[in-house]
Amino acid sequence: MRDWAWLAAALVCGAGLMAPLLNAGPLALDEHGSYWLVDSDLPGTVLQRSLDYAAIPPLSAWLEQAFLALFGRSEFVFRLPSALCYLAAIVVTWLVTSALADRTAAGMAALLVAWIPDVDEVRIARCYGLLMLLGALLLWCTVHWRRRPQSPLCLVLWGIVAAGNMWTHYVALPLVGMAWLTLFVRPDDREQPRIGRIAVIGAGLLAAMLCLPLLPAIQRLREWSPVLNYMPEGQAWWKMLGPLWWAGVPTGVLLAWMLRQRAVLQAVRSRRILLPALWTIVPLLTLVVLARGDLSSLANPRYRIPYAAGGGCLIAIGLRSLNPRLLANVVCTAAVIAMTWILADSRPWQLRRLGAAADVEWRDAARAIEQSGAPGEPVFVQSGLVESYLVPALYDDAWFLEYVGCRISRFYLESPHPRIGMPYFYEAPPELSLHFKTLMTAESVRPTAFWIAAATDTDLNRASLSGLEQLARSARFERTRDERGPNMTLLRFERPTESP
User: Tens digits of per-residue pLDDT, 237-251?
Assistant: First the structure.
């Protein structure tokens, strides 16, 4: 019963950390990007939009689409799949650690995963809750196959789950690679047969074949990376790893050593600590090494999420091996969690990505267009997405422009309005300003009218708004509505009816 109490406590904590979603407010910027994949104004499929324009593959969007179809459209329903996947990842982490060690270590791992410092990332309608779950499932498949090395079903299941990780986010590749390599490692029991090399290679080939459709998208992101890189280079390595690893874990290890009783470290088989170490430390260090130059945005903490299950497993088994006493395990686990969150940028119950005043302004702007605008009136949008840098190169691609303008989405503005993403500057190429003047009258009847919804929180966003206003005036449009908030501006322009 005591062993199950750990898991129950972890799930209660996880549910509590997800409770703020019940009243988390309007969609955030990244969530509008997720909704664009699910419900665009333009024809096409989730698969096409994801692989041709978005930064992530479509698996999480398909899951969100299913939830919206089953339970109706609301912010809570849209965010629910990620939260449920996070809770399921806690259970799978418990299963993985139980298979490698014992249920006490499994409970410790479950608690550590429930309190991951990046928990806010799984509370938004993005891919990270699913990514966390699939990362844990991949480790479970790896352990399960190692215990049943002759099972062809394990081969197929491992390949499918490995591909599922990649179809959720490309940053899962280091975890998939290390999980595959550890299939070659001998089991603890020398009398137990190892997985045949041909079977392991076959599983890798199956996963690779399932991921072939992703290659063009990966190549596109590689070409766009100099523009899409939104984090400054030179992040300190310890900041990339996060306070869990440079403060929480050392605190737990020190306490486990201080609380030991005469003795001896618990016997732990080398493979049991080696496997989670390979699943966690190597991928984390890979991100640290790669987060340079055009890839410095890999230093973002959310990209550590695929390795959460392996990290919880590694820390729990390590602390348990240092001190097997139950009281010491409770104290050390609590100390790791507490130290991690003390040094985090926010408290675990705080919503960093949701509930911002800017999100309310954008929702109200969409509703204002719904109430006061005529169907077909174009809406020029400066969402604040870094993809605005690419508009001068892709200005004639209607799908891309709508993606850049996704912050005025059909989630709040259901009537048909072309969304047109705005560039930061309009001087180059020479055709750019003419193209945008033409779009001002597209799909409208005289007297023509259009809307501008623009973020104003940065100099670039304000320059984008000012440039389009100048184009409107040069095309003889007059501003008939002007609503300026702290974070965004909503304008309506009309061209007066010419006198006969």
Answer: 778 888 999 999 999
In terms of Cα–Cα distance, which of 282, 324, 275 is closest to 100?
275
Cis geometry, peptide bond prior to residue 174 (ω within 30 degrees of 0): no
The pairing of beta strand 488-494 with beta strand 419-421: unpaired
Q: How confident is the model at residue 167 (pLDDT cuts 50, 70, 90)?
A: very high
pTM of the complete model beyond 0.85:
yes
CB under 8 Å, gap of 24 or more: what pairs does 4-7 form?
Answer: 4/103, 5/107, 6/94, 6/103, 6/104, 6/106, 6/107, 6/108, 6/110, 6/111, 7/90, 7/91, 7/94, 7/106, 7/107, 7/110
Q: Cis ω on the peptide bond leading into residue 187 (within 30° of 0)?
A: no
- Angle formed at CA 194 by CA 189 and CA 197, multiple of 5 degrees: 160
Write out the H or E segment, with its range, that includes residue 357.
Answer: helix 357-372
Cβ 424 vs Cβ 383: under 8 Å: no
310, β-bridge pairs: none
Q: Check: CB of residue 25 under 8 Å from CB of residue 357.
A: no
CATH number of 357-494: 3.40.50
What residue spans in the chain does CATH classification 3.40.50 cover?
A: 357-494
Run of H or E residues at 479: strand 478-484
